[in-house]
């Protein structure tokens, strides 16, 4: 008999995988506060420390396991409580289990034939989220990230403006222009460039003191562009801006869009998870007015990366705009109803299964569990803000609207000084990067900073980890103060 996998081989690979899982459990899944977020090395040092080399001969399991341990050792532990550097964090056990399962099955999401459970599951989840948005919501798709989802929304909006573009291309079209807040996510500009609309035709609309679009300025810029011969076709509003967590006034923006016949896209990549919370859902009021919405479950809801949803009101448009009907994959004479194959409404061919980890987390916790998660992290943010206001060495950049708390650490010589931010902006600009560098070298806390508009560099606190307690908040702020005092005194 010809055995394709001789038993000893299977046993060897089995024990290898068991060892790997064991290493992951001990070094990634169950880490504590006491372990470091990162073991920092400069790139040149890491190149010398880590064996990146590839060669002609294979490597023994023993050496591979050592390399795996080293990979973990020098990687950032994004599940650590004190990783608050990006808009994702935490390590959800159900999410991880989901991710492991789909990786083990290595499914691809084009047809019911190769992914029967996952394609039906995808439809269920999309329909359920649509139902939560409003009665007019019909369809959607999982995308490899919010940036890509925003890009597809732009693509659909342009297709809606002129359907002939699918077959005839964009040449000969007038100069199309779109509008978004000056604090919106940069993916809008990237994809406008990618689609041949051009970055300069994404017009930045002014924001108010907390970072929301000023509707009058949207009106003004639309008129201005029309005068210059541009043809407006779309507005991208944001619910939960990346830095300040601002919510654009979507109701007002909708009225303007309706008057001018513009597609309204709501980028709720960051804020969209609020849809689960009865307590905070009202922040999303007006979202149902949009033509398309992006929600990233991999952000607020702490689903492992990537998990991003683009939702549509128009049931037919995805298929109209994207389908090609490749007959080697979507055969017309299939042995089951072809409408069960979701693949042709996507731009990708092979596609990872992002739905399962989300579905499993939702199933495990229920909608009420996801709501509790959202409410808990908002409470932590509220406490964080109150601490910034209570401590003399901190200053709030602008009022908190969501989870993002934007703040400066103020060295003693700037404390209590009126107009310190304006007058000593240059000095203040250097404070956050220096403190961050010390923290990363300690491996203690990772927290992001950035400048914005006229504001010098400031820290941004964001945590999607509902295990982060008030005590942890105190620790983080004490820690920043301690480093600040050491550097600036
Ligand atoms: C994070 C973010 C995005 C991009 O999402 P990715 O999944 O990181 O590509 C888009 N818009 C907003 C408002 C975001 O915060």
Automatic annotation (TrEMBL):
One Gene Ontology term from the biological process aspect of the record: carboxylic acid metabolic process
Listed A to Z, the keywords are: Decarboxylase, Lyase, Pyridoxal phosphate
Instruction: Supply the source organism for this entry.
Output: Agrilus planipennis
Quote the protein name from its UniProt record.
Cysteine sulfinic acid decarboxylase-like
**A single Gene Ontology molecular function, please?**
pyridoxal phosphate binding
InterPro entries documented for this protein: PyrdxlP-dep_de-COase, PyrdxlP-dep_Trfase, PyrdxlP-dep_Trfase_major
- Matching Pfam families: Pyridoxal_deC
Q: Which cofactors does this gene product need? A: pyridoxal 5'-phosphate
Positions where N6-(pyridoxal phosphate)lysine occurs in the chain: 299
| UniProt similarity note | Belongs to the group II decarboxylase family.
Q: Name one GO cellular component term.
A: cytoplasm
UniProt superkingdom? Eukaryota
């Amino acid at each position: 008999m010809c055995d394709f996998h001789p038993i000893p081989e299977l046993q060897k690979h089995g024990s290898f995988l068991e060892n790997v899982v064991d290493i992951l459990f001990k070094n990634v899944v169950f880490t504590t506060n006491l372990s470091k977020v990162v073991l920092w090395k400069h790139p040149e040092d890491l190149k010398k420390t880590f064996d990146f080399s590839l060669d002609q001969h294979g490597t023994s399991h023993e050496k591979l396991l050592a390399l795996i341990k080293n990979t973990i050792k020098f990687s950032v532990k994004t599940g650590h409580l004190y990783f608050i550097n990006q808009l994702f964090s935490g390590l959800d056990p159900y999410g991880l289990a989901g991710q492991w399962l789909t990786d083990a099955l290595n499914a691809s999401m084009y047809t019911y034939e190769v992914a029967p459970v996952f394609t039906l599951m995808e439809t269920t989840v999309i329909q359920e989220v649509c139902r939560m948005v409003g009665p007019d919501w019909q369809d959607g798709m999982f995308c490899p990230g919010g940036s890509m989802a925003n890009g597809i929304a732009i693509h659909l909006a342009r297709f809606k403006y002129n359907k002939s573009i699918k077959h005839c291309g964009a040449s000969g079209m007038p100069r199309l222009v779109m509008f978004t807040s000056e604090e919106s996510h940069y993916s809008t500009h990237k994809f406008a460039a990618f689609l041949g609309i051009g970055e300069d035709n994404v017009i930045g609309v002014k924001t108010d003191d907390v970072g929301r679009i000023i509707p009058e300025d949207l009106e003004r810029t639309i008129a201005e562009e029309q005068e210059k011969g541009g043809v407006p076709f779309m507005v991208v509003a944001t619910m939960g801006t990346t830095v300040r967590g601002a919510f654009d006034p979507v109701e007002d923006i909708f009225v303007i869009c309706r008057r001018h016949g513009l597609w309204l896209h709501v980028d709720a990549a960051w804020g969209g998870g609020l849809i689960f919370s009865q307590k905070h859902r009202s922040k999303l009021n007006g979202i149902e007015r949009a033509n398309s919405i992006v929600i990233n479950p991999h952000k607020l809801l702490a689903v492992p990366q990537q998990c991003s949803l683009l939702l549509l009101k128009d049931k037919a448009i995805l298929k109209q705009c994207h389908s090609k009907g490749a007959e080697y994959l979507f055969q017309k004479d299939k042995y089951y109803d072809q409408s069960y194959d979701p693949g042709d409404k996507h731009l990708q061919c092979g596609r990872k299964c992002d739905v399962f980890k989300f579905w499993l987390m939702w199933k495990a916790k229920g909608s009420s569990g996801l709501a509790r998660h959202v409410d808990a992290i908002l409470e932590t943010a509220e406490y964080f803000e109150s601490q910034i206001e209570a401590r003399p060495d901190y200053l709030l950049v602008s009022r908190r609207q969501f989870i993002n708390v934007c703040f400066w650490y103020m060295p003693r010589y700037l404390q209590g000084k009126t107009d310190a931010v304006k007058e000593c902006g240059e000095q203040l600009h250097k404070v956050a990067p220096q403190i961050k560098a010390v923290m990363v070298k300690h491996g203690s806390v990772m927290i992001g900073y950035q400048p914005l508009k006229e504001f010098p560099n400031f820290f941004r606190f964001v945590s999607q980890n509902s295990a982060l307690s008030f005590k942890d908040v105190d620790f983080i702020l004490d820690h920043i103060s301690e480093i600040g005092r050491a550097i600036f005194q």
